[in-house]
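User: I'm putting together a teaching handout on how multi-component assemblies are represented. Below are the sequence lines for each component of a complex, exactly as they appear in our records. Could you produce the 3D structure of the whole assembly as structure tokens, so the students can see both representations side by side? Please keep the chain order the same as the input.
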Amino acid sequence: MSAATGDAPTGGRRPLRGIRVLELTTAVAGPIAGCVFADMGAEVIKIEGPRARTAAQSPTPPPVEGVPGHAYNRTPFWNELHRGKRHVSIDLAQPAGRELFLRLVAHSDVVLENFSPRVLGNLGIDYPDLKAAKPDIILTSMPAFGKTGPYALRGSYGPGIDAMSGLSHLTGYPDRGPGKPAQFYLDQSAGLTAALTTVAAIRHRNRTGEGQYIELAMLEGELQLVAPALMDVKMNGRVQSRIGNRHAWHAPQGVYPCLGDDCWVAIAVESDAQWRALSAVIGHPALADDPRYAGEPARHAAQDDLDPLIATWTARRSHLHAMHELQAAGVPAGAVLDVAEVHADPQLRHRETLTWVDHPEMGRFPHTRTAWRSRRGHHGVAGPAPAFGEATDYVARELARLTAAEAAALEANGTVTRVPLG
Amino acid sequence: MPEGALSGLRVLDLTEGSFDYAGRLLAGLGADVIKVEPRTGDPVRAMPPFPGDSPHVETSARHLHLNAAKRSVVIDLESEPGRDAFRRLVAESDALIESFTPGYLAARGLGYDDLIAVKPDLVMASITHFGQDGPYAAFQGSEIVDVALGGYLKLTGDHDREPVKPYDDLTTAHAAVHAAAAVVIGLFHRDATGEGDWFDVAAIDAAVFLLGGVAQIYQFDGHIPVRHGARLMFTAPKYPYPSTIRPCLDGYVHAHSNNRDAQRLAVLMPGLGLEELLDTPMGNADAIDEKMDEWLADKSKFEAVRRAQELRLPFTEVLTPAEILDDPHLAARHFLVELPHPVAPSSSQPGAAGILSATPWRHQRAPLLGEHTDAVLNDVLGLDAAEIAALRGSGVIA
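Assistant: Of course. Below is the structure of the complete assembly, with chains in the same order as your input.
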């Protein structure tokens, strides 16, 4: 029995059950970190300012028929990033909002934040303030460039940090300017790294009673992945640049045209055996014994000669047929799928990579779970995204233990809101 | 020296190539990560770049970075005595990460269901391109294949050209981060319940995870997004723009604004008539690009970014690897580190992925091939010198 088809004999106990996370996040990376906690069973409370949601302008679909919906509860990307979490809106700039927040900290394990470095200090909720409220609290910050250094106060988002990490310089066509990996790369990677680092810190706290402050500069996380290019500068005085779809040393590798508009297949040959197989599939078996293409360095140098031979073969096939024919012969190949094809792909469906959850206002919603399945069923997503302010009573009455009158006063003066303002 | 967040945990690492990043993260957090290598070494040791472009088993940049802070043990898993030694190591470890093709370990009696016989609460993560089962489980994988099937490749590049692969091994490395997270979460669960687990991590899943909302937005507006170079692809006319890369005097600048600060662009670039264009930014993206190019033409990237950031516009420089090494911010934070090595020449490499106030990141050079074989067999398995010599004599270890 494999992990993917295994039973889940744990009685539903999720690994991070009993952990409470307060999520003071914006954009993408911070919410991704919170997603991992929520999916794995932690209680994650997203705390948002009353005016934060006005930044989200992406189009929203209509509500499910018969449901009295609110457009601000139907933003697809926001909902993807907050699945399985609770939600409360607190104006932390108000003294009463700060006081309420610190009461929540006293009952929490982790605070996650990814604002620019001055924000927590300006609000009076930096690590020393949190520690005073909860001595073993773990605060995980995800500043773009770090809390120190000349760029500490620079603003940036994932794609801008991709640019500073070298990824933009290194992604794209050799004969054109710098590119960018799809929408962005960094946010998802940084979010996962923050989650695993924070869980490690909870383990340390459980063993020692000691909390801590974790600073994960997004740029420094991303530079881990650029190490080969960075080290090549010092080792060889070489400044790598864009190489398009080619591999740094394997060959041939590329994206080849197929039947249809904007249809392509990606092919990677990484051994002599795969080269022999590819030569046979594309109808040029003699190439495998041609001394001009014997061995990887020779093929790498001669790839301009090989690409047209491969493209002639792929151009007469659909991208899916080309993939299956090549894979049947043992050649690494993948159809270049668009997002609709990703939804339909049999392997991704088999793995439930997109995991469907019912959302009260949006209906069935496809969330992207983390990249694992587990024998015990510790995978998937925890539930739909929360409606704005849905946890207001829970937070104010049960966690902060406010009286009904105190809670009502916070709502009356706008410290806590149940609908987004502005 | 304070201990690491994962101190006291032993992780066996049977991964290859960029999947090695999983163990690197765990080692940085303080786990005792032991690479179990074949006699020829982890294949990452054969991957460029090398100093002087001379391949050497100890000097690959990828190895020096991805295997830093790990230990190295050479055990031949193709021999039964080697497998026996490995099983005994598993019994004394907490977790195992591996990246063989599905079924490779099971065929050698070392699959999850075999290993829980010697270590019932084992936490194991298997990283593959496509997953342990399913219609593509027997496919041949590769970074470019993973990004193709995950939908990430089709969104990278220019609309008038073929899709273009993101740099190097971004997606396999991202799968490794998921695997590291799974291991830490699995160990956390084990500590609470005594239950182990087996995590099946797939790089194609990691590629889909990288889509960043595209799969969700598509579901609700039915619009199949296309690649747009360095632009963000949300295409509603009123969506904020720019988020793009444009040329300047000495290179390129990443230009960015939100809808809340878009009008600051007109302040940054006065006299160009940007005000009207910014009412429907995404709808006027081409025209905005032309204006930006005009403004950027006589400015260096550092000058352009400095002026934009003064107005709190989140512009950044597009940096080359050489510029990153000389960057004053990274220097002030002492981010790049030198880890003196007995064979590899002095070089700087990326340092801590995070700064943890109570449990500092572990910096330690990558191990020589088999450097810790004797120590591990002695300390962990209790073998004496004669037993170790016998195993070495028969070629089981090195």
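A couple of points students might notice: Chain A touches chain B through 156 residues (CB under 8 Å). Residues 1-10 of chain A have pLDDT under 50 and may be disordered.
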